[in-house]
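Could you help me review a protein record that somebody else here produced? What it holds is a sequence and that sequence's fold in token form. I have pasted the whole thing underneath without changing anything:
=====
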Amino acid sequence: MSDYPELNLLIGGEKLGRSGRGTMDVINPATEEVIAALPMASKEDLDKALGHAACGFKEWRRTPADKREAILRKGASMIRERAKDIGAMLTREQGKPLSEATGEVVYCAMLLEFYAGECKRLYGRTLVRPAGERVEVRYEPIGPVAGFSAWNFPALNVMRKIGGPLAAGCSVIVKPSEETPAAGLAIVQCLLDAGVPGDACQVVFGVPDDVSRHLLGSSIIRKVTFTGSTAVGKHLSKLAAEDLKRTTMELGGHGPVLVFSDADIDKAVKVMAANKYRNAGQVCVSPTRFLVQEDVFEPFREGFVERAKALKVGNGFDDDVKMGPMASERGPEGIQSKIVDAKAKGAKVLTGGERIGNQGFYHQPTVLSEVPIDAEIMNEEPFGPVAIINPMKGYDDMVEEANRLPYGLAAYAWTNDPKIRMKLAEEVEAGMIAINAGSVSAADAPFGGVQWSGDGLEDGAEGVLSCMVSKTVHEGS
């Protein structure tokens, strides 16, 4: 682990290290070893970053669209060139298998390439008016953006915080998670090396609530974008409301999976088991509540358990490992608490259910069945490698359960009936739904949820437009 990089803040294009600053240890979740000391920004550092963001916005918004596009495309190329190195940093600090980590970094490049193209697709429109009159609707960057990202996707979450604002012409101050700082820092460095001004894209770290209160307390910041828990999202939304700052909140979920009797069960099991245990289940769109029609419940359950048992768990750098450790001690502790509660209320543990070993934050891939509706895990996102598989009578019961919770991020369904597909697309309350597929994410498609899963969108054209304001210009003769 000796090649884990030295960490720093990036303020105004300058790397600021530990000297004169407090630090926080960064832990390798596979070994529990301290791998780095992360410098924490002082109030003076944050004020300096705000000042640079104000200046950076003035410069970057005036940069011609074709030049912004070229710089972002160059940044994407640099991310691709450095993907293996950044992926290795990510695995060390977060734990996921190296192949997953490298794939995450490559996806950052794909997303940035799409955003680069959006620089020249930010069309306004001209409204129809009588001769001699003209009405134009135009889009302009909203202003400096503060972005706060979570630890589960250390590179991608940072890219989602910076890509849209930069394409729109905004400056941005991003705070990656203090637990997984290196990958996000490396992503931003690629952009700076490609030509994004140091004033326009900055990185800070610190005590999360202190940093968010300080940045959101400044009139310089005009937009807040956050990925994380619903509780923190509500807190940041309240802070943003004090100054009527725009928000994008990508919050928690509790993904339902509706499996109907006419579905291809073998394919559904194969796709959804892999999706469930990706990143040890630490995914906001992770499938969690499997609502399976009664006549296919047994074969689906048995196939899923078989795949969970066969999953190789270990250090993300080891060959053939499909699931690494959870990212911190909170992970297995939280999962254990929910499993104990579910068992006490009558749930069946079909496989897993325990921590692995006494070093690292490993947990067994777990399958629970016939979990009662009052169990904690049926109502609060487990955010770990636990699948809940319950039998359901039919369509109405399945949709009712899918919509029962106030979380509406991602949902999944498996059926070959076109009429059911159409009904599901209309009736399931979620920002994204995958039917006979395992992915709800694409660079050119909007990503976000409804109700307690957040508001606003990232990715796609919407991810750029969310960083812009409309202005209507009326001209008379």
